[in-house]
Amino acid sequence: MTHPPDLVVPVLGPTVSPCTGICRIDGASQLCHGCARSADEIAVWRGAEPAFRAAIWADLPVRFARLGIAARRQPWDEARLRDEISARIAGGWTVVLGVVGAVAEFRPAPGEDATLTWDGPALVARTSGGSLRLILDDRVRALAFPQYDGQPILALAVLRERGGPPRAHGLTPLGPDHDAIEATDRTAPLFDLGLGRKEARFCLRMAPGPLADQMSTAAGAELPALLSSKGASLLAASPVRVVETALGRAEVATPIPLPGGRSPDGPHTHLLPDHLATGLATPVSLPVPRAYFPGALLYPPG
Q: The pTM is what?
C-alpha cells in the first residue's frame, strides 16, 4: 500500500471532519489552527455535499503547510481506520505505546511476520516476542505528522471521554492480569510500577513465586527505590512488561537487555527514569492535541 507524502486521501462518502480539537482561528488567514478550515466551512461541514468536503480535504495539505500545522487528521471513518492500521502493522510498522521514558515498542523481528486477528473492534497482533491489542472504535482519531525523510509518523489519539488507564502512585499489586491477551496468562499476578501518569501505565507480569512475593511486600515503593532494591532481580527474571494506554495494551516477553546492552530486534521496552522525568507524553516533535489521550505512535519501517 502506498500513500502520498501527507497521507491525506480525499474520500467522498464519510462526513469525517478534519478537526483535531484545536479550535482557534488564525487572524491573518482566517483559518483554524487545528484543521485549516474557515469558520464558514466548519459551520456547514456536517450538512455539506460530499464533493464539497472532498474538495476541502484535497486542499488541506497546502493550507497545513501555510499555517505550519503539525498534527493533520486523516479522513478515515472507523472501517477505513481499521484497514489502514492493520495494513501498516502487517507491513512491519513499529507501534509504540507509553509515554516518553516508559514505552513498549511492538514490531516483528527480522524475517518474522505478525499474526493479526480481530475480536470486534479489537485488533490483536502477535509475534514470538510479544503481542498487541488496539481497540479501534469510533473514538479513535488518526493524526499524521509530516517527516522530511519519508512517510509520515502516525499518532492514534483517543477522545478523552473514553478515559485513560487507571493511575497509580508507587508500586501497586493488581492481582491476576484479567485483561491479558492470552487466556493462559490471566491468572498471573500483575504489578503496576506506579508512574502516576494519566496517559499510560507500565506494569510487570510474572509467575507466582518468590519474586512476586517480594514485589507484593514492596507495595507503595516509588520507582527509583524499587529499581534500586529489586532491579537486579527483575533484570535476571525478565518478567513480561505490559504497557497500557487509552487505546489498548502491548505485552513484551523478550529478555530485558543488560545495562549498556542492545534491545532485541523484535518487541522490546524502555524504562528510563531520566526521560520519564520530563513529563512528556509524546516526543516534542509529535504533539497530540490536548483534546485527546495519546494512544499509540506508528513509525514506518526503515
A: 0.90
